[in-house]
Every structure is written in structure tokens, then in C-alpha cells.
Amino acid sequence: MTDSFNDNLSDPLVRLFKGSKTRVFTDIHCHCLPGLDDGPATTHESIDLCNKLSEEGIAVVVATPHQLGRFDGRNDAAEIRDAAGRLNEVLQDRRIPLEVVPGAEVRADERICQLLKADKILTLADGGRYMLLELPHGIFIDVTPLLEELTLMGISAIISHPERNDLLGKQSDILARWLEYGAATQVTASSLTGALGPEVRRAAVRMLAKGWVGLVATDAHGSTLRRPRMRAAFEFVAGLFGEGLANLVCVENPARVVNGQDLLPVPSRNMQEINW
Ligand SMILES: [Fe+2]
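Above: query sequence and fe (ii) ion SMILES. Below: predicted holo C-alpha cells.
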């Protein structure tokens, strides 16, 4: 048994925290870049959010501005890489201990593979291994063909916040099928804390119990509204499912995404045995 929370971390990005008694998180989904999407409008707001991320114990954040959907034609890969580089410089100047790496939350679209090949669309941490995939709101589409196409390019989709999608909640067998096609799912920390309502929280817990949730991320958009709640989400998951599972979905698997490593499987639990 170790005294440190972080002795299993191999990523050089978080080596500074190795041996620390502070739990260190990697956030794979955050709208922290200024002026690109519905995240912070200015660099000042962006710094406020980055301070909050750092206070939450997050050492590395993947900046994931929206691509495609209502942001079609905006936020291309080069622009996001530049914006992440500029924000890192500001954070270093201000001694804020947070590293920003480029990524995107990409709306499901039949052009994705073609746009990836043209270097317009970004994978998480720009690593060519994982893509954060956002489903459209209010309509159901079966993304199986897209998952197959991505797999041929060596990319696994991580489906963002399925617990917030009513239609997926009703057709959970479809989500299970997507997981068989190599997809993973990311649940939002605020869904687990109850900040997005009891229905969303229940859906998130049900998906966790089934072993379908590979990762938790903040999906934060600002320092006040839609703020990061990683620590509270960790404590909630640890309370329900044990610290091992909380560590897997909040710490280990997110770090693996940034490092381009395989995700570790998440065991299922019997809902009846969960005291909630
Ligand atoms: Fe998002």
C-alpha cells in the first residue's frame, strides 16, 4: 500500500506530482480555450477556468473546443493547436501548474474520416488514437459505420456524455453495441454530482454499474457556470463503487488517453448491491 495517490503515473507530464499526496487528475474534455466556442470568451475567463481546474487537482487538460455541428467551418486543427500553445504560455507566465494539450469534441458527421486525413479535425491530445465524439441532441443516429471507419484508421471513439442523451437512455442496447465496436464512453463529472439533475445522475450511475463508463471528465465551460467538479465526482464514485473504480475512471484511464495507451476495462456491478 502506498502513501501516495500518484505512484502509478508514468506520464512525464505529471511526473512532478509523483509521490505527492494530492490526487492528480487528467481532464480529457474541457472547453478552456478562449473565444473559440461556448467556453470562455476571453483569455481572462480562460485563466479563471484554468485556475479552477488546477484547484481541482487537474495537472493536464485536453482542450476540446467543438468541431463540426454548429461550429462547422470554424475551429480547425491548426487554430486549436495554436490556441493551446498560446494558453500554455500564459499559464507558464502566471505559474499556474496546468498543461493544456490540443483536442476537440467532434460532432458525429459522415465527413469525419475525410477531414481527419486532411488534418482539419483533431484527435484527443493530438495523438491519433482517441476521438471525442459528440452525438447530435434530440435525434438518434446509429454511429456504427463511423466507428468501423475510425477503427480502420486506428482510432477509437470516446462518446461524450451519453448519460445526457435521452434517446440513448431508452436504447441502451445500442450503446452496448457501440462499445463492442471499440468505442468507449465518457461521463461528465457534473452528471455524477447531481448538478445536471436527478435523471441524468441516475443514468450516469446505471451506466457506471453496467461497466460501460471508461472515463469521467469535467466538460467544463467556465469557472462559475458549468464549472469543473472532478473531486466531488471522484468522491461520489468512490462512495458508491469503491476507490479502485473511481481511480480507474477518473485518474488512470484519462491519463492513458493522453499517453496513447489502451484503456483498462471497467468491471460491472450489480445495481441491487449499490446502496443509493
Ligand atoms: Fe463538451
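The first strand starts at residue 25 and ends at 30.
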